[in-house]
Design a protein that fits this description.
It is a single chain. The protein folds into two domains: 235 residues, 3-Layer(bba) Sandwich (Glucose Oxidase, domain 1); 35 residues, no CATH class. It is globular and about 70 Å long. The longest helix is centred in the N-terminal third of the chain and has 14 residues. The strands form two sheets. It has a nine-stranded mixed sheet with strand order 1-12-10-6-7-8-9-5-11, with helices on both faces. The protein has a three-stranded mixed sheet with strand order 2-3-4, with no helix packed on it. By secondary structure, it is of the alpha/beta class. Helix 6 links the parallel strand 7 and strand 8.
C-alpha cells in the first residue's frame, strides 16, 4: 500500500495551500523547439476502445459503444466522396485520448471563481506547445505495472536515473505502464487501477506544469482521499487550473525515449475548438 491515506479535512487543507501558492503557467514553445534534433514524430494518441457501430445499430447488452459513425456519399461526374458524422464520448470509459478543459470539473471546496469565456476555446486558440518530459516509473525502474499508486520516492528515482529534469511550464507525461488497448467495457473506478499518489501533489504543483498527460488517468482507484473519488482531477482542474490529458498511449513514446537515452521532447497538444464543450479528442505529438 502507498501509505498516503488522506482525510477529507487534510485534502481541503492541501487544496488551500496549493491555491495560495499556484502561479500562472509560463508558455514557452521555444524551450520545446530547442529539444528537436532528429525531426522524429511520435504520436501518443489512442483510438476509441471499441470499433465503431453504425448509427442505427444497437450495442450488445452490457457493451457500450465507443463511438458511432454515420457515412454517406456525394458523387458527380467521375468522383465520389465519402462523408462522415461522428458521435463520440469525450470523457469516461468509452472515450479515446482526450484533454479535459478546466470547465470539466467544479468543486465546492475551491475558492476560485470560474474564468470568463470558454475554457476549451481559450485552450484551443494556441494549443499547449512546449517542452515535454516523460516520467516512466515502471519502465525506468524495471517494474511490472501494478494497480498500486506510484509514490513520490519512485518518481524522484525515475527522474534521477533517466537524467530528466522538470521545469516550470513543461508538459508532464506520466506513464503507469498501460500497454493493452483501453477498455470501454469496464466502468471507471470499478476495479483497482494505477495512478499517482496524492503525496506527490505539492511536489508536482511546484513545477506549475502547462499540462499533464497520462496513459489512463492521474487518479488511482481506490482513491487515497476519504470522500473524494478523483482527488487529482479536483485539484488539478479546479485549484491549479491545469488541463489534463487522459488515456494517452505512451508505450511508443517510452520506447523512443529509452532508445534515444533522453526523456525530453517538443510536446504539441492541439484540442479542437468546440464551443461549450468540456474537453476534446486529442492526438498528442512528441517531436525529437
Amino acid at each position: 500500500m502507498s501509505g498516503a491515506r488522506m482525510r477529507a479535512d487534510e485534502f481541503a487543507e492541501l487544496a488551500g495551500r496549493l491555491a495560495a501558492s499556484a502561479t500562472p503557467t509560463p508558455a514557452d514553445a521555444l524551450a520545446g523547439i530547442a529539444t528537436v534534433r532528429l525531426g522524429r514524430v511520435v504520436s501518443a494518441g489512442d483510438q476509441p476502445a471499441l470499433p465503431a457501430l453504425p448509427a442505427s445499430a444497437t450495442p450488445p447488452t452490457g457493451e457500450p459503444s465507443a463511438y458511432r459513425l454515420t457515412q454517406w456519399t456525394d458523387a458527380a461526374q467521375d468522383w465520389e466522396a465519402t462523408n462522415d458524422r461522428l458521435e463520440i464520448d469525450i470523457h469516461g470509459a468509452t472515450s479515446m485520448t482526450h484533454i479535459d478543459a478546466l470547465s470539466h470539473f467544479r468543486w465546492a471546496g475551491s475558492a476560485r471563481v470560474a474564468d470568463d469565456g470558454d475554457p476549451l476555446l481559450a485552450l484551443a486558440a494556441a494549443g499547449v506547445v512546449g517542452r515535454g518530459v516523460l516520467i516512466d516509473v515502471p519502465g525506468v525502474l524495471g517494474r511490472a505495472s501494478s494497480a498500486e499508486p506510484i509514490r513520490l520516492v519512485d518518481v524522484r528515482e525515475s527522474l534521477a536515473r533517466s537524467g530528466a529534469d522538470l521545469r516550470p511550464g513543461d508538459t508532464v507525461y506520466i506513464a503507469f505502464g498501460r500497454d493493452a488497448p483501453a477498455r470501454s467495457d469496464i466502468p471507471l473506478a470499478s476495479v483497482p487501477s494505477p495512478g499517482l499518489s496524492i503525496e506527490c501533489a505539492e511536489w508536482l504543483a511546484g513545477f506549475s506544469p502547462a499540462a499533464i498527460v497520462t496513459d489512463e488517468g492521474l487518479d488511482p482507484f481506490p482513491s487515497e482521499v476519504d470522500g473524494e473519488l478523483v482527488p487529482w482531477h479536483v485539484l488539478v482542474l479546479t485549484v491549479l487550473r491545469i488541463p489534463l490529458v487522459d488515456r494517452a498511449r505512451l508505450t511508443e513514446l517510452a520506447r523512443e525515449c529509452r532508445d534515444l537515452g533522453r526523456w525530453e521532447f517538443l510536446s504539441i497538444l492541439a484540442p479542437l475548438p468546440i464551443p461549450g464543450a468540456s474537453g476534446s479528442p486529442l492526438n498528442p505529438l512528441a517531436v525529437f
